[in-house]
Amino acid sequence: MITKSSPNGASPAVKFDHAVVIGGSIAGLSAARVLIDHFARVTIIERDRLSEAPEFRRGVPQSRHVHVLRLRGQQILNQQFPGLTDELVTSGALLVNAGQQAEFHLFGQWRAPRYPSAIVSVACGRPLLESTLYHRLRRQPRITVIEEFEVAGLAVAARAERVAGVRLRPKGSLSRQETTLAADLVVDASGRGSKAPRWLAGLGYMPPRETVVNAFPGYTSRIYERPAGFSEPWETMYIIPTPPDSPRGGVIIPMDRERWLVTLIGVGRHYPPTDPDGFDDYARHLPSPRLSEALRGARPLTKPYGFRRTENRLRHYERLPRYLEGFVVMGDSVCALNPIHAQGMTVAALSSQVLERSLQAAGSRTGLAGRFQRALAEAVAGPWQMSLSIDRRWPATAGISEPLDELTQLRQTYFSWVMRAMVHNPTVAERFFHVQHMVEPPASLFQPAIVAEVLRSPPPQVQAAVDIQPLLAQDRPVAA
Predict the structure, then answer these.
(1) What is the sign of the dihedral through the CA atoms of 19, 133, 82 and 223?
(2) What is the rounded CA–CA span in Å between residue 277 and residue 292?
(3) What would the pLDDT profile of 85-112 be if each residue is shown by its tens digit?
(4) Is 243:225 a contact under the CB 8 Å cutoff?
């Protein structure tokens, strides 16, 4: 352990010597940014070759599909990387006002009316965001990036009670030869394919229990040249799959000012085709023809790419009876959500914020792992419940073992009313956008003024049949 004073002589700016981050994803990059304030050196280990140009990486197949950075994630990343939004816009990203420029179709209707929203978020492809963060970090002299290497396992010390580093080998190498890189802290941000449970089991630790809920969604995406002379008032379009019986949807989002990323969605194994003709036919048979019509003047720039590894997966590290000191797990390695809900990048940012707070409170590494994993579990509980509250409504969903209690059923009924109301009610839509972008808790949807607006939307016979008072009487936050 080392300690260096901050320039103003206040609290120590650097507490420890060396931290290693496994994975150069958005979770890994934001974690590295946090760690550099507490460690003299930070090393990122990445299987791919990273680039400061916006490029799709082989190791991140989901990057070819629509990604949305929610406003909460945007706020966190702007704190970590000051001026990030301005830099993205300079590089071609667009700012989208949720009330004016985000078109959506739900329950057979297109949104109306338009209004100026307080939710203004950045729209771009994931490669632009990732490469911009990477560009910033590469200019940090105390950050090293080791590319095209993979972590074969953890090195330990003190009778396997504390991490001592990682064992490295070239990606794809058949050789058993490994190099050990010493570290005081190892952060696993390697994503859905994390090997941390296997590593812990091999060291005699109990691996985390997993909860998996799968609505079997699939995606197929293609990049288009934005039509010449495009003059519609929207910048993004979303035909939203609606449980239980409308499983098809589609999204158009700008990658920059010249290109659209178009993702077709199917839930319950209604997978969109990956051949060009099949892609076009699927788009024509969405619940509304408007997305297909928008593509008529757009020139395809890539072939269609499919992706189906989309289940909700929560690894319960917070419940472990014993922790390997100096080893923490975050991002999709802990909580991987159905991408249809567009929460993943923001959950990655939330994870790095939890890491920052944990390090600020830590006088040493002892106990850090357990405190971090428990705090992270609290931070991701809301997004996890929001994702499951929607996915469990699909008939084909697997992994739901317990029946819904009456209060949860009532929450879901009310939430469906919220979704219906937001199509035509700006007050409800604005509150929903604040919850969706994680700047307000789900409980804010149950404030009396919002409930009054929502209750104007369901058919009168439904209102009479359902008593909503048990929800209003609760004195604790609720998830939709």
Answers:
(1) negative
(2) 13
(3) 999 999 999 999 999 999 999 999 999 9
(4) no
Note whether 379 and 354 are within 8 A (CB).
yes
Residues 411/365, Cβ–Cβ less than 8 Å: no
Going by their DSSP bridges, the two strands 39-46 and 143-147 should be labelled as parallel
* Backbone torsion region of residue 174, taken as left when φ is above 0, otherwise alpha when ψ lies between -120 and 50, otherwise beta: alpha
d(CA 244, CA 396): 9
Residue 210's DSSP bridge partners are 315
DSSP state letter for 227:
P
366's tokens: 């002892």
Residues 448/452/453/459 CA torsion (nearest 10 deg): 140
Beta strand pairing call for 102-106 and 236-239: parallel
What the block records as the tokens of 474 is 């609760």
Q: How far is CA 126 from CA 63, 69, 114, 478, in A?
A: 6, 9, 27, 31
Question: 314-353 burial, b if ≥16 CB within 10 A, otherwise e?
Answer: bbebbebeebbbbbbbbbbbbbbbbbbbbbbbbbbbbbbb
Rounded-to-integer distance, Cα 405 and Cα 375, Å? 27
- Residue with the two structure tokens 């990604």: 67
Q: Tens of pLDDT along 256-303?
A: 999 999 999 999 999 999 999 999 999 999 999 999 999 999 999 999
How far is residue 1's CA from residue 293's CA, in Å, rounded to a whole number? 61
DSSP secondary structure, 445-473, as one string: GGSHHHHHHHTTSS-HHHHHH---HHHHT
Beta carbons of 3 and 364 less than 8 angstroms apart: no
Q: How far apart are CA 222 and CA 305, in angstroms?
A: 7
Tokens representing 425 are 């009610």
**Pairwise CA distance, residues 65 & 3, whole Å:** 43
Statement: the pTM of the whole predicted model exceeds 0.85: yes
Pairing between β-strand 16-22 and β-strand 185-188 as defined by DSSP bridges: parallel
Return the closest-CA partner of residue 196 out of 204, 208, 184.
208
d(CA 163, CA 158): 9
Degrees (nearest 5) of the Cα angle 381, 382, 387?
100
Strand order in the sheet with 335-336: 210-213, 312-315, 335-336
What is the spatial distance between Cα 227 and Cα 225, in angstroms, rounded to a whole number? 6
- Three-state DSSP class for residue 284: helix
Q: How far is CA 395 from CA 200, 247, 248, 285, 398, in A?
A: 36, 10, 14, 21, 9
The amino acid at 414: Y
User: Is 80 exceeded by the pLDDT of residue 306?
Assistant: yes
Look at residue 58 in the predicted model and tell me its pLDDT. Answer: 67
DSSP string, 73-132: HHHHHHHHSTTHHHHHHHTT-EEEETTTTEEEEETTEE-------S-EEEE--HHHHHHH
